[in-house]
Request: fold
Amino acid sequence: MKKFIPAIFLCIIFFSCSNPAKTDDVKTDSTAKKEVLNYPFTPKYSINWQPGDEKNAVIALTSFKKYLDGDVKGCFDSFADSIEFIADKFHYKGKKDSLMAMMIPMRASLSSTSAVVDTWLAAYYPDQKDTWVTVWSTQTWTDKKGKTDSVYLVDDIQLKDGKILQIDEKQRLFPEAPKKK
Reply:
């Protein structure tokens, strides 16, 4: 009987190894049946996107960091010769040198500025062959008079061939602190 125990044990191991373990099929968005959706609106821009090259996020974030650090000229190294910048009550479309000439005194009026970046997303739109990086952040600054303020930003940055073509910036102002009585 003692001779049969190792043989039985080996048979159990053999048969259990040859039978693959049962796994539950987990459905993800990519494996789920695609349902035709009837959207209530038609998007202005494509909703067909895929993850983009993270090198573009590095370019966009490095440019932003250079601006924060006071290196406005370095910030513009990653800009295309022609740029469009859209922000709250501001729209510029033209040569990067002219935009840089506007941005240098704006940044010089601040004694400091910093940002807390929540996250970013690099996306590629194959329909348009466009690459965009979206950055969510809170920017805080102090002007030369000592006044500090902040804003929540969402920057959509379009890149092509490693150069920034467009920045579309949306902002949310924070409520003012309660006044002391």
